[in-house]
Amino acid sequence: MRCVGYRQAWQYLDGEFDRADMIERAVAATRQLAKRQVTWLRRETSALWYDPLVSGARESVIAEITRFLDS
Questions:
Q1: DSSP 14
Q2: What pTM did the predictor assign?
Q3: Distance of alpha carbon 12 from alpha carbon 26, whole angstroms
Q4: Residue 31 contacts residue 60 (beta carbons within 8 Å)
Q5: What stretch of H or E contains 41?
């Protein structure tokens, strides 16, 4: 029951609200989870952030993962 969208789907199947409400609530729950995750990640001092729109970002991520695994 703790998975995102599961509770909303279950409530829909129980007839508590219609399909459109289920989708709206599941999307809202997903946004809330994403916001909590980003908030948590911002406090991680050792986190590395990469902008996927910057040229070479993929290669930088692969290089960092390789360095991590080789250490």
A1: T
A2: 0.66
A3: 11
A4: no
A5: helix 19-42
The rounded distance, in Å, linking the Cα atoms of 36 and 49 is 17
Largest CA distance in the chain: 54
User: Which two tokens mark 16?
Assistant: 């508590």
Domain range for residue 39?
Answer: 6-70
Structural domain count of the chain: 1
User: Which residues, other chains included, contact 16 with Cβ-Cβ below 8 Å and sequence gap of 6+?
Assistant: none
The one-letter amino acid code at 58 reads R
Which value, to the nearest 10 degrees, does the dihedral of the CA atoms of residues 39, 5, 27, 31 take? 0
pLDDT tens profile 46-68: 888 899 999 999 999 999 999 99
